Amino acid sequence: MDYALDRFTREVTAAIVATGRVPLDLVELTTPKAAIAADLAFPAFKAAKTLGLAPPQLAAELAATIQLPADGLIGAVEAVGPFLNFRLHAERLATHVLTNIMAQGDDYAAQQLGAGKTVVVDYSAPNIAKRMHVGHIRSTIIGQALVNIYRALGYRVIGDNHLGDWGKQFGVVLAAVEREGKPTAEGETALEQLEAQYARYVAAASDDPELDEHARHWSLRLEQGDSEARALWQWCVDLTMTAAQRNYDRLGVKIDHAYGESFYEPMLADMIQQALDAGVAFRDEGGAVVVEHLQKLPTFLLQRSDGGTLYMTRDMATVVFRLQEFQPHAIIYVVGEPQSLHLRQLFALIRAMGYAKDVGLTHVAFGTIFDAKGQPLSTRRGNMVYLEALLDDAVARARSVVEQKSPELPEAEKLAVAEAVGVGAVVYNDLYQDPKRNITLDWERMLATEGNSATYLQYSHARCSSILRRANEDGAGGPGGDLTLLIHPAEQRLLKQLARLPEVLREGAERYAPFVIADWCYATAREFGVFFEQCPVLKAESPALRGARLVLVAATANALRRGLGLLGIRAPERM
Ligand code: ARG
């Protein structure tokens, strides 16, 4: 799809090059500041220098000789000091942007940039027999947004849920279940019971060496593939994944694979040997396999002296497996900031072993979640939040917003809208700013109908839908008309904003930053607000203008829905 602003940029570049004065590699374009009446500028400094001219002189010369393509998107060109400023052709912009959006519908802004390239995204990664806590919540939400963004750019995206389903602690999990019986509840409550059983077992074992020994025995049985141990472990995995799936469904999360740490167990001996052979690791007197002096990183282990392997060992095998299985161009880890060192060590190790030469290994680190009082969530503080409960809480609060705003909706629709608004509030709160920053659970702000919140964006979308519904009902004509009539400044600003989504999508991917899309959604909703205030739609001066404005409204709804969809947020038709 040839998007309006991409085409505009191409036309500007070609027109400058066609003057014969500036070679292609010196054509660097910039976006002028908002106060300047131009859409793209060519700062003539560099080119002027190589030609031995003063920049304003070159700009003036170019302005005088440049040929604009007929029927193109360039409306005007003008030299302003050292800049050559280009303006979009208002009527053609309107036609081009709206035709793009209407033609593409839910795929608006999709591109082929990533065609033929594969990206693996490692996200969510809850631990078996435990509830998903803030780290997993953020990873799940940010990870899925990145998956959506890269897919829209044409990449083959492989999502992998690196479940924490292996390690010594599973001996305790199994022993505890054996001791107290399987929990009878389901979902997050069942997992909470498992966590409690685990804690009681650890407490009891602290003054009962027999219990300790018994847990170790279970751990050994599991590692050796004993069928009873394996079955009990599988039961824990299934229980956890069933609970996780409920949350995933609500969040619109779909992860292609869930190999999990256990999957790599059979590969670990070979991996350790490879690290030894490569001279990256050595075996110390105690028998442990150690990695030391790797790019000044702190020392770490690949194998304990008792032969046990570690999180790191499994992560190392995971990279190698992914390289072979998927031939990715990049692997993106969406993991909390506290694991930064772990991942730096992992990436350094992998590279020192000669793997992943042309493969990007990126850690998208995220901060923590604070409660409304500004305290970080923690189990010890007793203010911990778990995913299912968080979503339920959000939806219950959203329900009262719906009750207030649209008491007339039928009950089933109220439920659906509350779900979309509540879940949307949680998701947006995570995505509206840089992942590195901490986020705060401030319900007032999260569910506000004004300001930068999902609710406000959903509300703007619903407002568009409502205008279109009313247009349908009043019999005075639907979308259509003459799109070249959309030259009011507020219309033009909204059109340009809609036109930006394709480049915003690229920027979001480049920066691993869903917030770039969130910012776009917010700016779009605001521009729509201005347009709606200044330009009557249903009561437009002429039927042709009414039709054109309705197309603009429909395109705005479409584009907003798309932007929100990339973030994993639903946009109800009514609120
Ligand atoms: N399960 C881990 C945790 O809860 C996160 C795994 C992240 N991914 C990875 N490849 N290490 O801390």
From TrEMBL:
GO cellular component, one term: cytoplasm
Principal location listed in the UniProt entry: cytoplasm
Record domain DALR anticodon binding: where: 457-575
GO molecular function: arginine-tRNA ligase activity; ATP binding
A Pfam family it matches: tRNA-synt_1d
NCBIfam families: argS
Protein name: Arginine--tRNA ligase
Encoding gene per record: argS
